[in-house]
Amino acid sequence: MDTLKTLLRENLVGRNRLWAALSALVLLVPEFAHADTGELPIDTGTTAWMLISTALVLLMVPGLAMFYGGLVRTKNVLGTMMHSFAAMAIVGVLWVVVGYSMAFGPGTGWAGWDWDFFLLQGIENKLMEIEVNGEARAIPWLVFAMFQGKFAIITPALISGAFAERVSFKAYCIFIALWSLLVYVPLCHWVWSADGFLTGKAIDFAGGTVIHISAGIAGLISAIYLGARRGYPKTAMHPSNLVMTLMGAGLLWVGWFGFNAGSSVASGLQTAQALTVTQAAAAAGAFTWMVIEALHHKKATSLGLVSGILAGLVAITPAAGDVTVVGSLALGVIASVICYFAIAMKNKLGYDDALDVFGIHGVAGIVGAIGLTFFLRAAEGRPDFSTQLWYQTEGVLVSLGYAGVVSFILVFAVDKLFRFRMSDANEMAGIDHADHGEHAYGMLNLD
Fold first, then answer.
1. Of 92, 231, 97, 223, whose CA–CA distance to 153 is shortest?
2. Which among 138, 197, 323, 436 has most CB atoms closer than 10 A?
């Protein structure tokens, strides 16, 4: 028995020594890694939040598909939703191959370029430096590239609502591929890259000018050039499924927290501020639209509610990192009121922006980009009011002018080469059947 006890004791001591050695080795590994690579330590909190934000922004694309799909007629539901999903495929590939390099590569001209960013080959194992509480930290570079890639995907998808129910799928795919590279990428470079001529001047925290104004004006130009849907405005064109539209709006609202708060590229105070003002502006926009409808029509509609949500969300997007909570409420209210009357004006003018891309995204983007100047949070080194107001106006004008002109050229070229507008017969049959050979539901309504 004594011999057995002695063996057990020696075995236990040996195992304790082994565990101690392994523990010491584990403690030393980070030091070895840091010394060998020379890299900054990864900020795991920011990395985790950026991964979540990336997923939240991608969630907005199927949310947008549901939002748009519920607003069109039954025969066009799948085709309309395919416009959003196709953007995930087409722009998703282009962004990895050349888009990120053109948008965030060095260069002071029309776009940038860095061979390390081509196909993302040079950043697979690299970290990107960020600042956390005044200290230099890092996140995996791929996380930032993928986060920005989701912005590139949703922007052309937004445009599709303007010419819904009347364009060929093939021509649409060609258009968004060209638009992404020739419109979105340069604007992104000018505003968000280190070398852009608007960088450090116009405040666009999460994409008021780069995303919403550019998509809005592109939608307006496209809708006017291509002409109205067959039978518009005399034929009633009822939404196929407002329940789906409501669910889509809910997903957009949830995803927008990643859209705005993720744009801080941090997990700290500014992240919390951006998230808070996003919620406040969306709620204020929705509430205001309900009040307007109640006063004007004696009832509040679900379509009006979701329109108010989007107006508030779009308006706060360029401002989310820089305005006060009171300012976010004001921007939500102002955007909702102006967008309401912008859509009413569209109906009087008679152009067929089918799903009000310019009336919501373009108009609210302008309201947010310029209006934020009046509600900025105090910060060191910020220009005086008049200078900042000019910077914001300059950003809006650049986005409207550049995106408008190039979008017209692209719509014209695609239409002449590939026939952008569907034939009357295909439009009557519906894009689900004509372009995809499918139907969203068992019964088909050919109104």
1. 92
2. 323
Distances, alpha carbon 181 to alpha carbons 111, 343, 352, 357, 419, in Å:
10, 30, 26, 21, 21
Residue 144 falls inside a structural domain: yes
Q: Which residues, 6 or more positions from 341, have their beta carbon under 8 angstroms from its beta carbon? A: none
The strand pair at 135-140 and 127-132 is best described as antiparallel
Taking only the tens place, the pLDDT of each residue in 275-317 is: 999 999 999 999 999 999 999 999 999 999 999 999 999 999 9
> What pTM was estimated for this model as a whole?
0.89
Query: How many structural domains are present in the chain?
Result: 1
Amino acid identity, position 407? S
Q: Is residue 63 part of a domain?
A: yes
Q: What is the CA radius of gyration of the chain?
A: 25
Main-chain phi, psi angles of 36, to 5 degrees: -70, -45
Please report the sign of the dihedral spanned by the C-alpha atoms of residue 61, residue 64, residue 66, residue 72.
negative
Distances, alpha carbon 333 to alpha carbons 211, 223, 244, 284, 345, in Å: 21, 27, 25, 6, 19
Q: Does 20 map to a domain?
A: no
In a 13 Å sphere around the CA of 237, the CA atoms on its Cβ side amount to: 23
- What confidence score (pLDDT) does residue 18 get? 37
Q: Is residue 101 part of a domain?
A: yes
Q: Write out the residue range of the structural domain in which residue 143 sits.
A: 39-436
**C-alpha–C-alpha distance, residues 185 and 147, integer Å:** 15
Say which CATH number the domain at 93 has.
1.10.3430.10
Rounded CA gap, 192 and 207, in Å? 9
How far is 150 from 64, CA to CA, in rounded Å? 13
CB 177 within 8 A of CB 233: no
Please spell the DSSP secondary structure of 72-131, one letter per residue: S-GGGHHHHHHHHHHHHHHHHHHIIIIIHHHHHSS-SSSS---TTTGGGGGGTT-EEEEE
What is the torsion angle, in degrees rounded to the nearest 10, for the CA atoms of residue 389, residue 391, residue 392 and residue 395?
A: 160
